Every structure is written in C-alpha cells, then in structure tokens.
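tool_call: predict_structure(chain=1)
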Amino acid sequence: MKNKVRKAVIPVAGLGTRLLPATKVVPKELLPIVDTPAIQVIIEEVLASGIEEVILVTGRGKGAIEDHFDHSYELEDVLERRGQTDQLDSVRRISGLVRAVSVRQKFPLGLGHAVLCAKDAVGDEPFAVLLPDDIISSSTPCTRQLIDVFEKYNEGVVSLLRVPETDVDRYGIALGENWAPRLHRIRTLIEKPTREQAPSNLAIIGRYVLPAKIFDFLEETAAGADGEIQLTDALQRLARDRALIGYEFEGERHDIGDKLGFLKCNIRTALLNKEIGPQLRAYLRTMVE
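tool_result:
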C-alpha cells in the first residue's frame, strides 16, 4: 500500500530544562510515569498504532534511552537466579518491543532540524512524528487516529487541541475550514503567537503524520531569529503547496515536559493502576478533608 505508514520519528535530543535539576544527568524521556519510563509509553503507543520501525533522533547524553531498549544481560541473570520471574519477563519484554535505529542531532537547531535529521532513515515514504513530552491517553492510540486520516486522504495530518486563549502563546496555532467532524483544512499556522495575533485557539499537539515531501520543505526553511528551524514553517509550506489536515484527536493529553503536567500524568496513571490506585485515592482524600 503506497501510503501505508510504517515508520515513526521520535525526537529525544532536548535538554529538558523545564524539569531541572532532575534532568541534569537523567534524560527527561526516562523519567517514570509511575513505573514506566515516558519514552516507553510513547513506544507502546507507536506499536499499538501498527508502526514497524522507530527512528530516535538523539543527542549528547541520551545513550541511556537506547540502552533501555537493549538487552541487560547482567540484570536478567540476577533476576533469573533470584527467581523473580515477573520482573524478568518485564525486562525482557522491553528489549523486544521495537525495531529502532538512532540518528544524531549534533546541534540544538529546533524541532524542524531534528525531523530533518531522520530523512535518510525514513526514505521516500510517509511517517509519523511523536513528541515525547506529550502523553495522550485514548482508547484508540492518537497516532493510529492520525494514520487512519492520512491513509484515507493521503495528505499530511497534525493533531489539534483547543486550548484556553491565555495559553495560545505556548503553541503553534492553526486556522482553517472545518469540513467534517473533527477535521479541518488548515490554511494558516503561526508559531507561538500573542493572544492578539492568534487566529484561533486550535493548538498543534505533538503528533503528526507527514509525507516525505516535508523533508524538501525543511531543507528550504531558513532558521529563525533564535537560530532554530521550525517544523511549523515547513508545515505552512505543505498547507500552501499541497494540503494539510488538522484532526481534533480523541483522548486526554498531558504535557510531561512541564512540572505540573508531569505530576498530573503520574497521578492519573497511578489512580488507574489496579495495584496502587485504591490506596492512592484513599490517601488523596485525606489531603482534601
């Protein structure tokens, strides 16, 4: 199938400055959502969406992310000798989760540049992009929702979320025509506008399914005043020269790159955990009484 989406790009080269000092040495992508590293939550979404291969765009100090998905023979040996079969199975499952390759983003030149670094690994086929700061809980994985839209229309798709007007300056904001339930034909994109500049409150969230043509636009995109190549600029070209669909996804999103968002995601996930959820709920009640 010509437009089948088989690959996903996950940029993990960011410094995680909003979560310092925890991220001084530990990659932010390995911080746990209860007991599962955030990057593993993202990888599991990828796999549940039918993706076959993951391209990790890494940077200096991010080798531990690759190690997490590799075999840990010493740990497995200790667990096996101790008879801790549940933990052993869990560790072994991680190493068999995904077929992954890594490419290096040598300089912090923005999200657009990070995606461009994956060009050779992706090749001439459509691909998904997932930003690991965004954890999205949904019955149908958010990436799968976008893939379904892409494979139906064969055009690039970005995930959209309506945000409070006070928050528009934190996102890329989209404007277009609403032509079907949850679907928008995007005409304009503005990166982090002021409230006065924002054309809508439809924010682009960290899930995309894009044609390979986006790499041509990224190569032609000049760096902005901050020295970074913005993916939003290339998406604007895609919207103008071809088409770009915005999809208001179904699900709940947490920005775990933010301290409060990270805590909210952990609390929500823990409350749904059969083992610790009831105890946590009881404890939270004591805090509000």
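agent: The domain at 7-257 is CATH 3.90.550.10 (Spore Coat Polysaccharide Biosynthesis Protein SpsA; Chain A). Proceeding to next step.
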